[in-house]
Amino acid sequence: MDDPSLMPDLSHLSAEEREIIEQVFKRQKDEEAKEVQLTLKADAELDQIDKQINERKEIARKLVGTQDDAICQICQRTKFADGIGHKCFYCQLRSCARCGGRSHSKNKAIWACSLCQKRQQILAKTGKWFQPDEAQHKTSNAGHESPCQNMRLFKRFFSHLLRAILIMSSATHCWKSYP
């Protein structure tokens, strides 16, 4: 809350109460900064994974019909005895047992390469699997929050404010002084 116009009027509060409220605002700002950093880190990881997948697909496309076509398209070391391997459910690349594994999607077992498994974990941690368009919207409209994000910020702010009020009320015993 660097902008003074966004700061509520705290002039009617005592210095101690004002300090408590300001600490809540500072904690909220710190948490939001951490969340932004985590989101940026997750976005960078997702971009890196997508880049690796696209590179592997390009290499696999070039190797179609050659002797090297029967290798793991992730590590590009393991040769398949039957020439097939397991095809990733998400990216369609063939992978060996070291570079992939079975995952569960909607109560059915699927094969996913290690890159796509990591991608799915990041999407699940950040919640982007649920609203991928919102993630695109945030990056394209920097500085303009979506309604969902505004509601989350409001709920977080409100919970911090209530916590501060409860702390103040228990510290000053103001509820006991009411008739």
Task: Give your account of this protein's structure.
This protein has helices at 15-63, 114-126, 132-140, 147-172; strands at residues 86-87, 94-95, 100-105, 108-113. The protein is mostly helical and 179 residues long. Among the domains are: 59-126, Wheat Germ Agglutinin (Isolectin 2), domain 1 (2-Layer Sandwich), CATH 3.30.60.120; 130-139 and 146-163, no CATH class. The protein is built from four helices and four strands.
Key phrases:
179 residues, mainly alpha, two-stranded antiparallel sheet, 4 helices, 4 strands, rod-shaped, Znf_RING/FYVE/PHD, transmembrane transporter binding
Mean pLDDT, as a whole number? 75
SSE ordering: HEEEEHHH
**What is the CATH top level name of the domain at 59-126?**
Alpha Beta
Number of helices: 4
Write the layout of secondary structure elements.
Blueprint: H1 15-63, E1 86-87, E2 94-95, E3 100-105, E4 108-113, H2 114-126, H3 132-140, H4 147-172
Antiparallel strand pairs: 1-2, 3-4
Helix pairs in contact: 1-2, 1-4
Task: State the gist of this model.
This protein is mainly α and 179 residues long. The protein is built from four helices and four strands; from the N terminus they run αββββααα.
